[in-house]
Amino acid sequence: MELTVLCVSFTLLLLLGVPVAFAIGLSSVATILAAGLPIAVVFQKMVGGMQVFSFLAIPFFVFAGELMLYGGIAERIVRFANSMVGHVRGGLGMSNVLGCTLFGGIVGSPVADVSAMGSVMIPLMKKEGYDADYAVNVTTHAALVGALMPTSHNLILFTLATSGLASVSVLGLILAGVVPALILTLCNLGAAYWVAKKRGYPTHGSFPGWAAVATAFAAALPGLLVVVIILGGILSGMFTATESAAIAVGWALLVTVVVYRSLRWHDFMKACAKACKTTGVVLLLIGISAAFGYFLALYEVPQKTGELMKSVSSAPWVIFLMINVLLFVLGTFLDMAPTILICTPIFMPIAMQFGMDPLQFGVVMLINCALGLNTPPVGTVQFVGCAIGEVSVGQVMRTIWPFYGALGLTLILVTYVPAFSTWLPGLLK
User: Fold this and answer.
1) How far apart are CA 122 and CA 136, in angstroms?
2) What is the pTM of this model?
3) How far apart are CA 5 and CA 341, in angstroms?
4) By CB neighbour count within 10 A (0-12 exposed, 13-18 middle, 19+ buried), where does 429 fall?
5) How confident is the model over 144-176, as pLDDT tens digits?
6) Can you spell out the DSSP letters for 205-239?
7) Domain ranges across the chain
8) What is the per-residue pLDDT across 161-220, written as a single tens digit (0 to 9) for each?
9) 385 to 76, 129, 146, 161, 369: CA distances (angstroms)
10) What whole-number distance in Å separates Cα of residue 235 and Cα of residue 248?
11) Nearest to 57 by CA among 229, 243, 271
């Protein structure tokens, strides 16, 4: 009865358009009342869920990303990417892919990535004769790589969601995402080139020479070094994964204020306000999801879901396919953070039971969640890109399939070839 109340109330609230955080909280309260337990249990689980030391990394990573966003780093990355591939057919599209990937590695947020890079690249591509739907699709899909990058606070959220299920380190998950991020970038480049060639987009000039590439790289290097500093510092033992977030903020301030001198006081205050708002939303979701997860565990939802899947098939490849399909469907209705916090305790034990490594499952989860960010009705990244490109979601969806194919191919490779996500972390064991 209580489990029915939990699932039905949560689904109805989502269908009524109630924000996800409140839908989770209200369904938890309804379950408490149905079970006859003290309502204080909900608040105890909420507070306990937020009181984790490693969560200090979340506001710092978010703040570092906002500083990079407002600090003028995107333009320098665009020039560097364009100097390398701008001369190829559809070169602006491929430059967009590289630029979004590099900037995503700095800010660690697909939404921030498409906001910054899209504001620069989408109008430029339209001006050069590229169709608006192509410009938006290239930008929004390339921005999704940011979800796998070392500065992504979603990596921290996943390690929280695995508490009590498996030992997953932040460093291990960061390393597990490196090769899949590279594969996704290559697939995005292939999709961008294929569509550009099919539509007959022109080339723009000739290769500027390696001297121009080196000059553009030198200009973008201070911003790009944040990823190297984070990985190098953690691997060398100079600081922990949590402390690396504070280092990222310090480096962002140094680059944007001292090196580039492009961060104005007004932009700094906007970055502070946006970081506070984002952190508040994420921590609220964490707290409420902790209460929701308590009821999922109490009423054995993971075990029952696993039994239902095993009744369909006992073949691991079928189980992994069902997990991917369910995560994709849920990701189209939920944002990235609640999907991670709600679905990880349900599907991770099932995946592990059929031989999937926790780090591999983490990358699979992040890719599925990223795909949901570019799929209506809650496709935040897609909505931002369409607003910048001044094009309808329907028009973009009609030509999105080559880029969906790039994401789908990456997801299949990571799901069925464990080495892509486990090889690099395995080198440190």
Assistant:
1) 7
2) 0.78
3) 20
4) exposed
5) 888 888 878 788 888 888 877 777 888 889 889
6) S----HHHHHHHHHHHHHHHHHHHHHHHHHHHTSS
7) 38-426
8) 887 777 788 888 988 998 999 999 999 999 998 998 888 887 766 777 888 888 888 888
9) 20, 18, 15, 30, 17
10) 15
11) 243
